[in-house]
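Note to self: user wants both folds in one dump. Writing first protein now.
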Amino acid sequence: MSSQISSNLVPSHDGNTSKENRHLANFRPSFWGDIFLSSTSEMEMDAGTQQEYEELKQEVRRMLVANMDKSSQKLHIIDAVQRLGVAYHFEKEIEDALEIIYHHHCNHIEIDGDDLYTTAVRFRLLREHGFDVHCETFNKFKDQKGNFKESLIGDVKGMLELYEAAHLQLHGENILEEALSFTTFHLKLVETTVDYPLSTQIANALKRPLRKSLPRLIARSYISIYEAYGTQDENLMKFAKLDFKILQHLHKMEINKINRWWKGLDVATNFPFIRDRCVECYFWMLGVYFEPHYAIARTFATKVICLISILDDIYDAYGTYEELEIFTKAIQRWDTNCIDQLPDYMKLWYSETLNVYKDMEDLMSKEGKSYRVQVAVEAMKRQSQVYYVEAKWLHENYIPTMEEYMPIALISCGYWNLTISSF
């Protein structure tokens, strides 16, 4: 990647070249205030609790690998383990169990679980885990006219599972599109007529189906639902509650540290024009990976999102065109010697960004993976380049063609940078 802004990075167009006013957006302040700055110490489990935690984990593992008379029983256990948010402990056991279920299903060895509920759960779990399952399995629930049978309306739990399965449809799978319309319509009708916890489960699904929700939100909600049904496995229930508590404390510690870093930048004073969304940025990363072993990556990626957010607002909401030109060139050089030539509000972003990437490089060097950070640095450089392209278009009052815009937009949206930083 060029160390300078190439003159042909943006085609030259006639337009306004006079000095621009700053485009202040007047973003609302952070909703959270200092709520996450309260002291949070590391959670220490006593020996008894630690032993119970490990014993419960082993009990759940034994349940997942145990032979069962009906594969539908295993499906329902896997479904519960996933919804309760503890599947990350048992990835191999779940994959092995689903491999057997898939083999039986493909070879018609399966003799149980032909009802709508089990068929939909099996389809969803297998497709979620990458198995090649076909939507034609739902044809048996249609009548001679090609419509879903009216008798299905009385099977509310089955309809709910069909609704969840339909969200995994691929392009051209019309039967799943029909299933989504059918189940959505009828679930809305019964949502307020069925008892708790099914009513809550339906309401949650209609608002945020499993495919479109976040694992920790699903777990928090389903812990209460699973317990309320009264048919739960006690060991699984206890383990899920304890695991949720442990992870919740870990996540609170992480956001506490990140928030202290953020407050150390004195955003309100140094960047009064930006969106103060540090907490939201961390929450987004929890949606990518919440597991404990991704703690370092989660923290680094959150800081990168926060820095990108500031960078975006510098280019969109504050920096003058002349300042942005100098700024973009400095980012391409990635050198502390460039700091003095920058306006004061840019200096802090520049120095802190270099510090964040240097800290990560030092950490990754211990694992022999420092090269990964250099790739992330190049992604941040490219991020600034495309922001500059957009700023130049604005400065010149130029409306790009779709062919010009899309390659820039695909990078300026940030996914490319964040994906690289996450790994």
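First done. Writing the second protein, which came from a different request thread.
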Amino acid sequence: MNNIEKITKRDNVEYIGDIELDKECTVSDPCYNMETWCMCKLKDMLPGNYHCFIKKNNDGLVSTLYIYHEKYIREPKTMIDFVSVDSGQAGFYDSDYFIKTRGKDDEEWKWYKEICSLTYHSDSSELTGGTKDKKCCVSSSGDGDGSYPLFIHKNTKGQIVSACIQYL
């Protein structure tokens, strides 16, 4: 059984794709710009491939967004900060990628609309999550706007190997 199967079975979560992260990860609402005070930066990530998952509650709302380095399955249990949400969604982004998506209004607006299409499917009214460009994963925040706890787990070298935003 691979790690995706182990995590899916153990945590009753839905796998939504993989992303590549470097040493720094931005955790944010996708509507924020680089000057927004309430975004989070994770600076000690283990670079590599991360599996992304969402967990839904009994009402079908996204309750948690998870990322796990492909070589680790330990759950993130250490709360380190809060992630603010103003557009009903949040996610994990490779920091260099997130910076590149900020800029010219037309390009930024196009990117933002593409992100929104990952979290809300207008044809089904389903709130969900997804990945984009193998550099970010986002999800609906389940409960809308607010401030949500961010949890991490570090390996023995002090590198972050899993993280989650807990919405509900």
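Dump finished. Worth passing along: The helical segments are 3-11, 95-101, 105-119.
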